[in-house]
Specification:
By secondary structure, this protein is mainly β. The protein starts with a helix and ends with a strand. The chain binds copper (II) ion (CU).
Length: 202
Amino acid sequence: MKKFKFFLIVVAMMSLSAIPIIAATSISATPYRITLVEAMDVLYNNAIGAQPKFYVVGNNGDLESSANITLPVHRRIILTIISYDGGNAPVAGRYAKVSGTVNNEITIINGTIASGSNTKQAWLKKVSSVPVSQIIHTFTIPALNINIPVIAGTTEIASLYINTTGSYIWRCETACGSAPDGWGGAMAASGWMMGNVNVVQK
Ligand SMILES: [Cu+2]
């Protein structure tokens, strides 16, 4: 009887210690997928009118606020950014370079907004920078050296890892907002062209 009890205790201890190892392995092996949608013509207020805005596609399929984005630490993140926008915005040249992603690259799928037979398509093209003249926004986390220039009307896919937990600011680095000089409105509003990224064990 005593031997049997000891056996049960050993089995219980083994199974308790094994659970976290199995769970950690299976979670980190699965990529974490997050989709951002960037749209223009979102009513900011009656004085300013429309402003551009980043949304997070929520788990129920709705467009949710980008004011607080949660990302996992030590896990492959597949970040998709879909822009429904046009034109470009003033930006410093250094933000044309992709950084903080695997190989400092993103995959661009041109043609989210089809403009007829003259639209030049670039399906599944990997790039490490884009022409400054094509940038409408950026998705930038300065403290983590993550920078993804966003081309209007384009879908972009980034693969990245973040290796430190914490709370960081994400922001757009183009002057895409309202006055003064394009840095007001959306550019100064959490959930529009800036917000927090919380990197957690997930
Ligand atoms: Cu912007």
